[in-house]
Amino acid sequence: PAPYLQSYESRLANYNNPAARALLECIARKQSNLCVSVDVSTKAKVLEVVDAVGPSVCLIKTHIDIVEDFDADLLDQLEQLSKKHDFLIFEDRKFADIGNTVVLQYSKGVHQIASWSHFTNAHSVPGPGIIAGLASVGLPLGRGLLLLAEMSSEGTLAKGEYTEATVQMARESRGFVVGFIAQQRLGRADEDFLILTPGVQLGSAGDSLGQQYNTPAAVVGKGADVIIVGRGVYGKAGKEAVREEAERYKKEGWAAYEQRMKA
Ligand code: 6AU
Asked: To which pathway does this protein belong (predicted)?
C-alpha cells in the first residue's frame, strides 16, 4: 500500500529529518494526530491552553507574534510544558520573502523562531530561494519545514498548478521540507510527505472571514496525517472544557486514522 496507508511507526523509515521523526514517534507513542493551534494573545492564556491540551496533542501550533506580553520566559515555560506533556512545537510563521530576508526573520528579531520551534511553514510563492534560506538556519538545528501547498480559506489562489509546483519544490529539498499544509494527500502514491491539515472543526462549516471547516474524519480520509484545530478547542470556556474538547478531537482523529489503515 501507499506509504500514507501504513502506520505512523512504519513511516519513520521514510524520514531522515529529526523533527519529522520526532513527530511520527510522538504521534505513535501518544496515539494522537492532533495539533492544537493556540491562537490567543496573552502569555497566561497561551500557557493555560497548552497545559490543558498538552496531554492530548502531538504538536502545539503557535502564532507567537500575536502574544502582546511576549518574553523569553514564555518560551522557557512552553519548553517546560512540552517536556511535561510530550509534544513538539510548530510556529506558524508563514514565511513569504526572499531567502536572505527569511534567514534573518527565522533566526533573529524578538522571537528567534529557529531556536525553539521544531517546525515552521513557508509559502512557495518566492521560489526555491526561500527554502534554501530557511534550510541554512533550520537544518543544522534539526528543524523541519512545511510548505503551504493549499489553504483552507475560501477563494485561495493556492490550487492547481501552484500546488503542483509547490510539491515539486518540496521534492527538491527533501531533507528539510518534510511535508505540506494542505487539504488532501499530495505527491505520487509512492512518495511520503507529512500532510498537516487546518480548517478542522466539528459542528461548524466556517467563519465570517472565509475560513472553511471539515471534520477530522473527512480530512484524515483525504490524507491528513495531522489535524490542526484552533477555535474548535481553545474556543471553549474554561480550562476543563478545553481539555475535554482536545480529548474529543484526539479520539476522532485517531479513529479516522485507524479507519484509513483498514481501507
Ligand atoms: O481552527 P481555526 O480556524 O481557529 O484556526 C486555524 C489555524 C489558524 C490559521 O492561521 C491556520 O490554522 N491555517 C493554516 C496554517 C496552519 O498554516 C493554513 C490554512 O490554510 N488555514 C489555516 O487556518 O492558526
From this structure: Pyrimidine metabolism; UMP biosynthesis via de novo pathway; UMP from orotate: step 2/2
pLDDT at 1: 83
Q: Which residues line ligand 1 (CB under 6 A)?
A: 37, 39, 63, 92, 121, 148, 151-153, 181, 198-199, 201, 211, 228-232
**How high is the ipTM of this complex?**
0.99
List, in order, residues 6 or more apart from 247 with CB less than 8 Å away.
Answer: 56
- Choosing from 35, 39, 162 the residue with most ligand 1 atoms within 8 A of its CB, the one to mutate for a pocket test is 39
pLDDT of residue 263: 78
Q: Does the annotation list 61 as a binding residue?
A: yes
Looking from the CA of residue 152, the nearest atom of ligand 1 is 20
**How many angstroms does the Cα of residue 251 sit away from the middle of ligand 1?**
20
Spatial separation of the C-alpha atoms in residues 106 and 31, rounded to whole Å:
31
Ligand 1 centroid to 172 CA: how many Å?
A: 26
Burial degree of 78 (CB within 10 A; 0-12, 13-18, 19+): buried
How far is residue 74's CA from residue 123's CA, in Å, rounded to a whole number?
A: 27
184: exposed, middle or buried (C-beta count within 10 Å: 0-12, 13-18, 19+)?
middle
pTM of the model: 0.98
pLDDT in tens, 20-67: 999 999 999 999 999 999 999 999 999 999 999 999 999 999 999 999
